[in-house]
Design a protein that fits this description.
This protein is an alpha+beta fold. The protein has a single domain, classed as Hotdog Thioesterase (Thiol Ester Dehydrase, Chain A), CATH 3.10.129.10. The protein is about 25% helix and about 35% strand. The protein contains four helices and five strands, in the order βααααββββ. A five-stranded antiparallel beta sheet has the order 1-3-4-5-2, covered by helices on one side. The chain is elongated. The mean pLDDT is about 95.
């Protein structure tokens, strides 16, 4: 299975992925990464924070962008080169996050594609905004 090559990608192409973030997702992410920041895993502690409740790890939601880039656009065989992320709002347990990627530049000479990347919650709030550069798989 191969993703889209540079010649199959055009400016304006988009892909999306959505998931509702569960308490289990947060604990599994903490276990995998070792990030047990109490803002994520301790409700008593989190009640005293600015957010008043536990929030998901920012990189958990950023992983949804990676899902799109590795599975859809460009897809399997693509190599991640750079990702810029701006964390704009918290993600709470029960939020449904839609990750979206849109091609904004194609450089066939360097085999590079640049995508605008975002994660948006169920209320339409952009929680992550950024940009990614990838090298699509070589010609099939």
């Amino acid at each position: 299975m191969k993703g889209k090559t540079i010649h199959e990608i055009k400016i304006g192409d988009t892909a999306e992925f959505a998931k509702t973030v569960s308490e289990s997702d947060i604990y599994q992410y903490a276990g995998i990464t070792g990030d047990f920041n109490p803002a994520h895993v301790n409700e008593d502690y989190a009640k005293g924070t600015f957010f008043k409740t536990r929030i998901a790890h920012g990189m958990l939601s950023a992983g949804f962008i990676s899902n799109i880039l590795g599975n859809q656009l460009p897809g399997p065989g693509a190599i991640y080169i750079r990702q810029e992320l701006n964390f704009l709002a918290p993600v709470r347990i029960g939020d449904t996050i839609k990750a979206r990627a849109e091609v904004i530049d194609v450089n066939a000479e360097k085999n590079r594609v640049t995508l605008k990347t975002q994660c948006i919650n169920q209320d339409g709030t952009v929680v992550i905004d950024g940009q990614a550069i990838l090298s699509p798989p070589k010609v099939k």
